[in-house]
Amino acid sequence: MFLYVLLCCVGVVHCYGNGLVSSVCGSMTPNHGSNSAQTSTAPFTVTADNTTFKEGDQITVLLNSQPGDQFEGFMLQARQVGSTTSIGTFNVADSNAQLLSCDGAASRVVSHKSNTKKSVIQAKWTAPTSGQLSDIEFRATFVKTASTFWVGVKSSTLAYTGTSATAAPTVPSNPDCGKTKVCFSHPSSCDPTANTGCYFMAVQTSSNQSKMRIEMFGQAEGYVAIGFSDDQEMGNDDIYICGKDSSGNLQVQHAISTGKTAPTILSLGNVTDIKTTLMNGNTINCSFTSRNAISTRSRATSTSEYYLMIAAGPSNSQGNIQIHTNKYVSSTKANLQDPSQVVTSAEEFPAIVKAHGCLMLISWMTTGSIGMLIARYLKGVAKDHGCCGKDFWFMAHVSLMALSVTATAIAFILVFSYARDWSGGAHPVLGCLVMILSLIQPIAAAFRCEPNHERRFVFNWAHSFIALAIKGLAVAAIFTGLALFEEYEEDGWMLKVMGGFVAWEALIYVLQDLNLRAKKKGNAAFTKLF
């Protein structure tokens, strides 16, 4: 039993022997059971090779032990004086060290790989290239043994000497569009000085395309990104992201998009003269100079023609970007060395998507509605007159509803062949329910019992209920679909017209129902008289 307890204790005190300590990067305190940090002066030091820094500077940091002392584990990070959030990124070449994520960002922490004895660790720290910066200090935790460790050992303060007002111009300089800059915006040719709903990017390249001055502007809760692509679909695109970090400050990142998943963040590379402005908490404006070669399909290319992309969306509390809520792509490739060309936005909704919407509108606001009205209120018209032993009302009802189901199936196939994926949200869910119920309805009708069967009422009620459900779901799907279109319209007229049409149709049903009840009462009264 004593041996078992001893082994358990060993498991506790060495739970971070592999150095994977991201979970405690905020407190920097090892989880060594009941042991607490030492309050005496640590026999270890943290030193930097410089006393000042500015944006993008690289600082060499040394962790040293005094003669006769060694440490088994450690954690190193940089923080602004008085802050509890890590800042900047590290690089290490030491085989005894590894990089870890902290505060939702990669390479923010340096830690040990094993509990072997160490005397010296060297790491290189790179300062952020944007954001509100101030004086920093390096902090480290040293673990001598499982029960003996020091937390928050500090280096000397490094004074910030950069330009704290790294603000971009209030708006991009779009008067130069068509003269010295290739510009792309949505809505097309919108003016960010007058329209806060304008999403804008501009690229000014040198003659050999070795240097680009890039500007981006747009409204978003988290980030605005621009991209260079070989096609109009996301995936294998060279992108730059201007977004909020975990502290709410704007930062510029370089990445390559991977399509349906979050982009892969790359080293910022040769990017300088970064200027950022955040207005009203959600209007993002960034500009910078990049000497990075544009790389698409994971390889550098020499062409100067690309589709231009703008995307915007939210970020989480750690500063990681989430799926975009707005995306705009140029209608043609833009030659970055030909500012005179006019770059326009591609149609937000291609013809195949519009065809999907039209077919659904025809199905459930025209043919489907007429078919339901005929079945409920016009059975008495031309009664006992028809074709092939069936009344005219029945033939009309079946034909119109068959047309509605066929058009719904075609619309369903069209949109899925275009998207090739599940887009999320309420609209596709509603559409799938409509499609499923639309297929169930004719199948159930094909196996209905005879009109005079004692259980025919079960079919009648089920048929009516499913029809009502389809109608309600279809109307909801149409409204949510139109809402997607309305994101690109200012007056919202489509939803208003649709609302009026639904109200008019509902009024027709009410009046017809009242008329039907009145006729039944009149017939009943006439029967009593005679």
Automatic annotation (TrEMBL):
One of its GO terms (cellular component) is membrane. It is found in: Membrane. The keyword Iron applies. It comes from the Eukaryota. It holds the Pfam family DOMON. Its main location: membrane. Residues 318-518 form the Cytochrome b561 domain. It is a multi-pass membrane protein. Residues 197-313 form the DOMON domain. Keywords: Electron transport, Glycoprotein, Iron, Membrane, Signal, Transmembrane, Transmembrane helix, Transport. Residues 1-15 form the signal peptide. Its cofactor is heme b. Residues 10-173 form the Reelin domain. The chain crosses the membrane at residues 359-378, 398-419, 425-447, 459-481, 493-511. Belongs to the FRRS1 family. This is Putative ferric-chelate reductase 1. It comes from Sinocyclocheilus anshuiensis.
